[in-house]
Design brief:
15 strands, Rossmann fold, 11 helices, five-stranded parallel β-sheet, eight-stranded mixed β-sheet, 2 domains, elongated, alpha/beta
Length: 368
């Protein structure tokens, strides 16, 4: 991916994070600006009330990150994002917008699939100053910090080499049976998953369960999109659903998904439990439950994403005798999630080879 054209770069790790706030709402701008100014590690680079002003100020002010509203008069936020992805490809953007409806949800999903872009939905009551301030501090600013931290830490890091495969120390030559595949993915996930399922084409002979970090509403849309490009049945999971071979189930946006065994069947449990790694849904929650249910027959896959969600769960899978795959850093939009598990992953695989790896590892003739 090309670096920013005309930008100063991401800055040193100990420098304050320079934030450009773009929103046509005076109320929202005030909430976000006050929260940024109150944070010791953040610095207000500037504000913009419309899209044209935002593009001008990115070039002039050289922020480390842009907080971007979508619904603005004239040039809207999605048009701004398109321009930024063309001229400032590495610049992190956090979309801060109201819950979209209808076609706009699909367009946002497209935006989230490319570039260093995250989404935080606005609170429903931004005119309540106390509620709005707490929400910005606790929900928005941690994402701003993380997306810039990841970019700063990646500067100067060498790209990952070719696929790496490591035999398990305990292997005796007998191949491990796989009864379930669990996947954790975040930033860049929609496009990574589309690549994966285009490569699979046919359904795997085992269930696939996915945590994609997204707010409520988007995972159902993503599942519907993927269902159209694969022969597998792709759905957003519901409470109590049976887990069966050939199906692909997404954790609902904003909710955890766990697996439990009921007699001889495995079913889904959906919950609103506390966030794990600042995430709900969390890959750790899913992976740990899969390790309890399937043990050494679990295959965990960690794809592109920001943060370390999936690390604890992958360790649980590894400890139970299961297998762990990680997407290569060179093919990840943000590599911190897959690289967090790289030290004990059984294989580090470029994105375009993940599908073939899953097909190979889930083939029934491997178990004989």
């Amino acid at each position: 991916m090309a670096e920013d054209n005309g930008s100063s770069g991401p800055g040193a790790p100990d420098q304050p994070i320079r934030v450009l706030v773009v929103d046509d709402s005076v109320v929202v701008r005030r909430l976000v600006v006050r929260a940024v100014e109150a944070a010791a590690d953040l610095e207000l680079a500037g504000i913009a009330s419309n899209g044209q002003m935002a593009l001008q100020r990115v070039g002039n002010l050289l922020p480390d990150v842009v907080i971007l509203d979508l619904a603005m008069p004239g040039m809207d936020g999605l048009s701004v994002l398109s321009e930024l992805r063309r001229d400032h490809q590495g610049l992190p953007v956090v979309i801060f917008s109201s819950q979209p409806q209808g076609p706009l949800s699909s367009v946002i999903l497209d935006a989230l699939s490319k570039g260093k872009t995250e989404l935080v939905l606005k609170p429903t009551a931004t005119r309540d100053a106390a509620v709005g301030s707490d929400y910005v501090r606790d929900e928005l600013l941690p994402v701003v910090r993380d997306i810039v931290r990841v970019r700063r830490e990646s500067v100067g890091q060498p790209a990952a080499g070719p696929a790496v495969s490591r035999p398990r120390a305990a292997d005796t030559g007998q191949r491990t049976r796989v009864d379930a595949v669990v996947v954790g993915v975040s930033t860049g996930g929609p496009e990574a998953l589309a690549t994966l399922f285009r490569g699979l084409r046919q359904a795997l002979p085992v269930p696939v369960l996915i945590v994609q970090h997204m707010p409520a509403g988007f995972t159902k849309l993503l599942a519907e999109r993927l269902d159209r490009i694969t022969e597998a049945t792709v759905r957003e999971a519901v409470e109590g659903q049976l887990v069966e071979p050939g199906m692909v189930l997404f954790a609902p946006g904003g909710r955890h998904m766990e697996l439990v065994r009921v007699y001889d069947r495995v079913v889904v449990r959906i919950s609103d439990g506390p966030r794990v790694n600042f995430c709900r849904p969390s890959a750790d929650v899913l992976f740990q439950s899969a390790a309890r249910v399937y043990g050494r027959a679990t295959l965990a896959v960690v794809l592109t994403g920001m943060g370390t969600d999936g690390l604890v769960g992958s360790r649980a899978v590894h400890g139970a005798g299961g297998s762990v795959l990680a997407q290569s850093a060179a093919t990840s939009i943000i590599a911190s999630m897959p690289m967090a598990v790289a030290d004990f992953a059984d294989a580090i695989v470029p994105l375009d080879r993940v599908a073939a790896e899953l097909v190979s590892r889930t083939r029934a003739d491997r178990w004989t």
